[in-house]
């Protein structure tokens, strides 16, 4: 079962790591491994959400998601999108950007380094919005209750996430401008670019979130109409085709999943720039991680264990929040890439350990509903 589900991921991992050693030596091997772990840790909640929607689709659309969807996710967002980021930020064509990355690494490195403030501002604000929207939402199950309860109350204020993100962006850009002028003004002209890039990250998040919400609403509307139609068919004695029921909403489910996957892949792609500027290693690492996310989605659907480890989603979002701060800090200061990569892993491991402890405590209490929020709070003290 495990080999059947993760077989392709294992094969891609072996090929990617071998290519990394051939391309960048053991340093490249380590960077690709960290990027793959980062992508998996940041996208675990994506796999959980995907699995929850995928199990509602018929076999045909599940296959479409796991074939065409993989092409879009792995080759589109994880391979093409980093090229687009570099091309836009460095004002060059995508082909030229790829050619430069392969033939003139020193110049490419310099161009990416010069563009890093705008890339970090865009990504930092985008990731910050994901984190803020998560912690300001009131949830039945809370991991760090002492922190999440008051934040959920604050979240009732309209547009609070946007306001905080804009304040953080303004402080970051002003601090960057002051720092640049203080040290000779080498990047003083980029202060405005940092501000505009951060706003672009905020706008991108709101567009992606709006599209995801639109498709989610369409799915709910279609499900309601299908249930009404099914009830009418039962009353008239003319049952509807199961294929029609599955197919009518499935297309919108597929579109919603792709938009959702794109929104989650931004954090991995943008976060990768905090670890390496080498586009080849980035593509190998993120592509490998994306394969595991897809395999994990299938595994969760087949095993039906979506609610076993309820704090993993919290851990993933706290990792996103930490990464957003790191990216914004790297606009001015250099942070070791190993530290950046391991922050997410530590937070995910902590949330997993907390989930295991919670499950053991619930089992000891004799609970027959491990997802019961009231019992969760009673056992964990959150």
UniProtKB/TrEMBL annotation:
The record's listing under InterPro entries reads:
DUF475
Disordered, as annotated region: 362-382
Keyword Ligase listed? The answer is: no
Q: Which domain of life is it from?
A: Bacteria
Ranges annotated as spanning the membrane: 65-95, 115-136, 157-181, 193-215, 241-257, 269-294, 315-333, 339-356
List the Pfam families hit by this protein, alphabetically: DUF475
The record's keywords, sorted A to Z, are: Membrane, Transmembrane, Transmembrane helix
List the PANTHER family. MEMBRANE BOUND PREDICTED REDOX MODULATOR (PTHR30238), SLL1022 PROTEIN (PTHR30238:SF4)
Q: What is this protein called?
A: DUF475 domain-containing protein
Protein species of origin: Streptomyces ortus
């Amino acid at each position: 079962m495990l080999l059947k589900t993760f077989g392709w991921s294992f094969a891609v991992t072996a090929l990617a790591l071998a290519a990394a050693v051939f391309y960048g030596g053991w340093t490249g091997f380590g960077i690709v491994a960290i990027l793959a772990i980062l992508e998996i840790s940041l996208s675990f909640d994506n796999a959980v959400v995907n699995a929850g929607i995928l199990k509602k689709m018929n076999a045909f659309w599940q296959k479409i998601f796991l074939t065409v969807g993989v092409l879009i996710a792995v080759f589109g967002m994880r391979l093409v999108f980093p090229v687009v980021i570099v091309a836009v930020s460095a004002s060059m064509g995508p082909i030229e950007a790829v050619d430069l990355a392969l033939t003139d690494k020193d110049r490419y490195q310099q161009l990416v380094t010069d563009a890093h403030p705008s890339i970090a501002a865009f990504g930092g604000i985008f990731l910050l919005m994901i984190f803020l929207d998560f912690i300001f939402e009131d949830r039945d199950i809370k991991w760090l209750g002492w922190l999440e309860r008051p934040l959920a109350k604050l979240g009732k204020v309209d547009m609070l996430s946007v306001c905080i993100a804009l304040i953080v962006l303004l402080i970051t850009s002003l601090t960057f401008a002051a720092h640049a002028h203080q040290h000779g003004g080498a990047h003083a002209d980029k202060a405005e670019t940092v501000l505009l890039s951060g706003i672009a990250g905020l706008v991108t998040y709101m567009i992606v979130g709006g599209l995801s919400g639109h498709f989610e609403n369409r799915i709910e509307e279609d499900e309601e109409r299908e249930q009404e139609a099914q009830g009418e068919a039962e009353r008239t004695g003319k049952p509807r085709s199961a294929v029609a029921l599955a197919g009518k909403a499935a297309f919108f489910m597929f579109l919603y999943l792709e938009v959702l996957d794109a929104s989650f892949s931004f954090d991995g792609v943008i976060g990768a720039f905090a670890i390496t500027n080498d586009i080849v290693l980035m593509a190998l690492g993120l592509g490998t991680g994306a394969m595991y996310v897809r395999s994990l989605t299938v595994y969760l659907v087949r095993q039906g264990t979506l609610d076993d480890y309820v704090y993993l989603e919290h851990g993933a979002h706290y990792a996103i929040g930490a990464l957003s701060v790191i990216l914004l800090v790297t606009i001015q200061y250099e942070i070791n890439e190993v530290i950046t990569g391991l922050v997410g892993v530590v937070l995910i491991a902590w949330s997993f350990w907390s989930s295991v402890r919670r499950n053991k405590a619930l089992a000891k209490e004799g609970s027959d509903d491990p997802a019961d929020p009231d019992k969760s709070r009673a056992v964990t003290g959150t």
